[in-house]
Design goal:
Blueprint: E1 2-7, E2 12-19, E3 23-31, H1 33-37, H2 44-65, E4 75-81, H3 85-102, E5 106-110, H4 111-117, E6 129-134, E7 139-146, E8 149-155, H5 161-171, H6 179-185, H7 211-222, H8 230-259, E9 263-267, H9 274-287, H10 303-315
Parallel strand pairs: 1-4, 4-5, 6-9
Antiparallel strand pairs: 1-2, 2-3, 6-7, 7-8
Helix pairs in contact: 2-3, 4-10, 5-7, 5-8, 8-9
Length: 336
C-alpha cells in the first residue's frame, strides 16, 4: 500500500510517500526558516502563501522521483489540525483535489498523532507506552495502549517548552528557531552560574508551567552587562535547558510509573534536543524501561509521519469524506 502524506500545519511544506512494503520511500521538506527569521517567528499569512507556492511542485517532484502516477497511489493522508488554520487549509484543499483526481481514499491525521507515530518510523513501538509530546506549541503527556488509542494524562498550564526555548533564544539574540542553538551553546555553559526555577515540582498532577521560567530568564538576561559575551550566552542556555529538561523528565517518568507502562517515547520538535534525549535514555535504562528516540529528521514537522499515520488509519478501514474540515486546536483523540 502506497500512501501520499501532506503536512502544512505551520511553516514547513512537506510531502512524503509511505510504502507498507519498504517504509518511507520519500520525505521532502521545503523549509520557510529564512522567510520568517526576519520576524523572529512564524507569520501565519506568509506561511500560507508559501505553502501555496511550494506544495504542488513538491508533489510533482515526489511522484517523478518515485516514477509513479497519481493513480498508482492507494490513499492520501493530510494533517487537518491542529495548526495555523490558513496553512492547514492549503494542505487539506490540495489533498482533497488529489484524492478526487486519483479516485483515492482520503484520511485526515491529527498533527500530534503524527508526531507520536513518527517513533514507529525509527523502530517498532513497544506498547502500551507513555509519550511526552513537546514542541513549540504543545507540552503534554499521552498514554498510548495501542495505535489509535490515546489518553491525555496532563500538560502545560500556560506556555509550551518549545516556546520557552524560542523566547530565551530571542532575548539572547540567537537566530530563529532558537532551540537548536540553545542545545549547541549549552554544552559550553557553566552549570553552576544560573539555577532557574522548576515550577510545580511538588504538584502530584501531570502538569507543566513555563511562564514563570520565561520571566526568570528575562530578568537574568536584563541584569547582565552589555554587550553580552559568548560565555554569558552559553551559561544562560545551559541554565534554561537544564530547568526545562528537569521538568519534562520528572513528569514523563512520573506518568510512566503511574500507568505502569514498559516503554516511554518522545514526540515533537523538542524531542530532537540532545540533552533531553540523553536524560530520558539514562533514566529509562535505570528504570528498566524501553526507549528508542525518534530519528531527528522525524522530530520536526514532516509528511512521513502523516503518511505512516494515514496508512494505520486506512489499514484499519477508517477514511474521511470530502467534508473533512480543518481545526486550529484540539486534543488528539481515540479513533480505533
Amino acid at each position: 500500500m502506497k500512501i501520499l502524506g501532506i503536512e502544512t500545519s505551520c511553516d514547513d511544506t512537506s510531502v512524503a510517500l509511505f510504502d507498507s512494503e519498504q517504509g518511507v520511500a520519500e520525505n521532502l521538506v521545503s523549509s520557510q526558516i529564512d522567510l520568517h527569521d526576519h520576524f523572529g517567528g512564524v507569520v501565519p499569512e506568509l506561511a500560507s502563501r508559501a505553502h501555496l507556492v511550494n506544495l504542488l511542485p513538491l508533489v510533482d517532484m515526489l511522484l517523478a522521483r518515485q516514477e509513479l502516477e497519481l493513480g498508482d497511489l492507494d490513499g492520501v493522508a493530510v494533517t487537518n489540525g491542529p495548526g495555523l488554520i490558513g496553512a492547514l487549509l492549503v494542505g487539506l484543499s490540495t489533498a482533497k483535489a488529489l484524492a478526487v483526481a486519483g479516485e483515492l481514499p482520503l484520511v485526515g491525521v491529527h498533527h500530534i498523532e503524527g508526531h507520536i507515530l513518527a517513533n514507529a518510523l525509527t523502530a517498532p513501538m513497544k506498547l502500551p507506552a507513555t509519550v511526552l509530546v513537546v514542541s513549540g506549541g504543545h507540552t503534554e503527556v499521552i498514554h498510548m495502549p495501542e495505535v489509535g488509542c490515546y489518553e491525555r494524562l496532563g500538560g502545560t498550564l500556560d506556555d509550551a517548552a518549545g516556546e520557552a526555548f524560542d523566547k530565551t533564544a530571542k532575548l539572547l539574540g540567537l537566530p530563529y528557531p532558537g532551540g537548536p542553538h540553545i542545545d549547541r551553546l549549552a554544552r559550553q555553559g557553566n552549570p553552576d552560574r544560573f539555577r532557574f526555577p522548576r515550577p510545580l515540582q511538588k504538584d502530584p498532577r501531570i502538569v507543566f508551567s513555563f511562564s514563570g521560567l520565561k520571566t526568570a530568564v528575562r530578568l537574568a538576561i536584563e541584569a547582565l552587562p552589555r554587550p553580552l559575551v559568548e560565555q554569558d550566552v552559553a551559561d544562560v542556555c545551559h541554565g534554561v535547558q537544564e530547568a526545562i529538561v528537569d521538568s519534562l523528565c520528572q513528569r514523563l517518568f512520573q506518568a510512566a510509573e503511574q500507568q505502569g507502562t514498559p516503554a516511554v517515547y518522545l514526540a515533537g520538535g523538542v524531542s530532537a534536543n540532545g540533552r533531553l534525549r540523553r536524560r530520558v535514555a539514562d533514566e529509562a535504562s535505570r528504570r528498566g524501561l524501553h526507549f528508542v528516540p525518534p530519528e531527528p529528521v522525524y522530530c520536526t514537522d514532516n509528511a512521513a509521519m502523516i503518511a505512516y499515520a494515514g496508512w494505520c488509519h486506512l489499514s484499519a478501514g477508517r477514511r474521511d469524506g470530502l467534508d473533512l474540515d480543518s481545526f486550529p486546536r484540539g486534543p488528539v483523540s481515540t479513533w480505533r
